[in-house]
Amino acid sequence: MTNQSLPTALDLPMVDPLPPETQKYFDICVEKLGFVPNVLKAYAFDIDKLNAFTANYNDLMLGDSGLSKLEREMIAVVVSAINKCFYCLVAHGAAVRQLSGNPQLGEMLVMNYRVAPLDDRQRAMLDFAAKMTTASTEIEEPDRQRLRDVGFSDRDIWDIANVTGFFNMSNRVASATAMAPNDEYHTQAR
Q: Considering Cα of 117, then 122, then 123, then 126, what sign does the dihedral take?
């Protein structure tokens, strides 16, 4: 694998050579996805920053949770749609298409999640994520209670809030640095 330059408008080259554990992680990405996501390449100018980003992402998106992987990806897409983050809409829209087996769902969430055929649990979760993205200071106990009423535990609410917060942060970094999604995402699960 060759080290390519940062896929953004910034000029921060990846560490060369990559530490063995980072190269192994990138090799696993190639094995599983067929490519290394540009967001990882972008952070690879500083291995400590890359490790912090991937540890947080892996915990939130792949760790134990009452939220399914699909639900977490749905949150990522809805937050990214509100923030108009091209990178995350393309990358996580592909994940929703793949995990749901429904390309239309992925497109609906990208454009306007309110037109998607969601169950009450998913609708409440995405309404909460949307409100947290646009008006987090207006969240009150009735908003959390609505989540409980459709079956979410307080731990699940914590996870919804943290996934939402993570993507609000990463959307802003991706947009501010002109991070471009990998071309491969565009054709996945269509």
A: negative
CA pair distance 45, 49, nearest whole angstrom = 8
Q: How many domains does the chain have?
A: 2
Which residues make Cβ contacts (< 8 Å) with residue 174, sequence separation at least 6? 39, 85, 86, 87, 88
Q: What is the pLDDT of residues 18-50, one digit of tens each?
A: 999 999 999 999 999 999 999 999 999 999 999
pLDDT 10s digits, 137-182: 999 999 999 999 999 999 999 999 999 999 999 999 999 999 999 8
d(CA 147, CA 56): 24
**Residue numbers of the domain that contains 30:** 20-62
- Domain shared by 86 and 132, yes or no: yes
Please tell me what DSSP assigns to residue 45. Answer: T
